[in-house]
Amino acid sequence: MRTGYCFLLLLSLAIVFYPTPCHGQFWSTQLLTANSAQETVAASDHQDGRTVVTGSARLPNGRHEMLTACLDHLGDTLWTRRISHTHDTRGTHVLFLPGGDVVTAGAFWSGTGWTPFVQKYLANGTVDWRKDHLPPEGYSLYPRDLEMLADGSTIMLAEQFNGVERHSVIIAVSNTGTGWWSRSETYAVLNDLHIHADEITAVGSIVSGNSDHDMFAIRLTRSGALLNSVSLDASEDRDDRLTHVTADDDRIYAAGVIPVKTGSVRLVLLRWDGTTTPTQHTVYDEQYVHRYRGIQMLPGVGVALLVRRELPAGGMGAVIHVHGTDGQPIRAMGMNGNTNTDTHAPIFGGCSGATALSSDSVLVSWAPARDGVYDRDQLTYSIYAATTSGGQNFSTPDLTVTGTQATVLAGLTPGTEYYIVVRCEDPMGNRDTNTREIHVTTGGQQLWISTEALPAALVCQPYQFALQAAGGRAPYSWSILTGAFPAGFTLEANGTLSGETTTPGSYTFTVGVEDADALTATKELTFIIDAAPRLHVTTDMSLPAGTHCYSSIIVEPAVTLTLQGDAVLRCSDTLYVIGRILAPCSELSIIDYSYARIRGIIDNRCATGDTTDGPSILFYSHRGDFSLEMESTASGVFSHGGFHLTDDTTIAEWETVVTPDARSTVPLDPVANITADVLNDIMAPDETIEVLFTCEGADPDGGPVSFDIDFGDGDVRSGLQPDDGAVLEITKQYAAPGTYLVNLTVEDNEQRSSGASVQVHVGDSLSDGSGGLGASITA
Q1: For the whole model, what pTM was predicted?
Q2: Could you give the domains of the chain?
């Protein structure tokens, strides 16, 4: 981390040069640009006599713009640049690049959260490029640190938060402004970055198993690959953390803070070689709330630690501790301040934005305040809410939080406009007095799903049920979010659950509903599909024409089951016929069985009329076995129209690929796949290479498909039909060496299509001196 101090008196309207050599000061400058009510410096850097600063300028309307200024060695302004958005924009970090170019980091409020960015200026102030990094939906990202790799690429550390959770993200941007990589560390709060020999180290804390924070460090390569990480629980049930880090060729040095009891901490130095467990060395042992302010390598000596020390009699002092490379203390040099004379409130720009989360809660966000004495995690923020502008009661905050940039304000009235003010206070009780208001309207009446349970469905029976919601504002839009949903059923946007299936089971899934104000509610439901009843025929009986569903059908010896017209028997388990099933002069289909055993008679012949042609008998199951046992001359399957096992000429091959009960009720693109038996082969002189391609395709909503194949050498074959409705095997001769990308396109009867590809490499046996000898790799 780079540290430095820059004090600007923001009082005049122009740059003023003061040659004041007393106390070693050469010049000072004052800057207040046009239309700015106040300007705040967040970071600075120096190179070859030039100084660059970045921060924010508060406009008369309370909105903040990012302001960056570059000064020469005399303090004269070389250039200034502003970045503004509809809402607040803040500058947070700045670096000089080799050659005088400048890189800045900042963030802008999008209306729902903070979005960080990196922007590069050429040495003359011309904008070179800018790269934004969008946060996940519902989160903010705010910069914490900015460092530079040897090639000028920048590494930004950002905090990701939503008022409840906090994570860290490390973002790399190349020296040309293109996004390079990013890495998230879940539930980690990283405070500092350091780069040495193009290795990246970040330190902070991470949530442990018992919900407190442990010390945490992570090492990455320049490309973001993890080298290693370590977490240390230095105090039970308290939040430990690392605050600053530096490194040399041998090891990493990190400054750590360990709470001991209320109002007392222990400061330690951690030494880590990146592989073994770090060693710990005490800097201050159980004394007040001392704080680290910086860390720096001392080549040939060790490491220097800058500490802000609380004094027993009040007031504060500054101490520099020097430790050797072995971690042992060498010396300390300090200077004590006066008694408690801090009377300055933190510099704070107020609330940046508020977003309604529900009917009674809003997410309130702000940019972190700056204080000359206390760290950001010691500053307290008070949130005041009123239903009228200027109506806040500043003597009693609605909510108080410490060390964060966002919080959820709950317990509000639905459908109400609120005016939010946020103020910041340091541990000495100095509080800023900003009155900047952000107004936000909570959602309407709370939205919830009122359906408590789903009625059970029955296999083979059409089902329809309407889900119900209450509250919010119509219209509602429903969807399946997660979980198992039964094939053959759909949930429409209006909440209607409908469909039919032949497969019993229990399905648990989560449904979501959204109202006209974008309020949402979710609920987990269990949908039970009961199996059909069992049909056990022990005496003669009849069934009417139509479709009949059973889990199993058993016809005992010497009894008859008669179908009175065209009929479909759907049997999800076993069909066992020892007696007789008759369907005189009627179409009979027996489908979906898992096992069919026929030892008796199934007969649909006509007693009169043309006995050479008539209705057929169809047995069809995409998952079942069929057994026909001729127990006697009278047993068997008899039909004037024929006995068909899935090869019925009235059934196209594609109908057996996706069975009716498994088809999607909405049009979907077909699926495609292609494989080759040879992926890499060597071609001998005057020979060809033969490759067998297996092409597969199917339409999830049912229907025939056709194949188009481009073999990559100019040979394109179109309109090919799969052999069995789904699979086509085709050979191809390649006559010349080369790498061929073979593309398969599958098109259904709705002109929807999808594709798949496979690459085949044919090598020249003479190109590598192998004399025609080679090896082939087969798939």
Answers
A1: 0.57
A2: 33-186 (2.120.10.10), 353-441 (2.60.40.10), 449-530 (2.60.40.10), 539-647 (no CATH), 671-778 (2.60.40.10)
